[in-house]
Amino acid sequence: MASLITCPHCGVRPKEEFSIRGDAAPVRPAADVPASDEAWNAYVHLRANPKGRLREFWHHAAGCRRWLIVERDTVSHAVFSVVDAQDLALRGTAP
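RESULT FIELD:
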């Protein structure tokens, strides 16, 4: 059986319509203060890759083309929640 993701805009869709872009937790260095090369290297290249529950950026490439934050278990692939990333950004809620 195919894995299904419930897009907040398109409804239940197969996971093949989405691209996973990675962990939603890293925070970009602030634009108002020059960041060090080490800070940029850590932001761009270093990821923890934990087992278990994780919030990730997903792009609905074959659907509404919106960026979503999907909370899922990286071991069982169970999906716990799907929210529009813009909605979180507008509320000021960190991923």
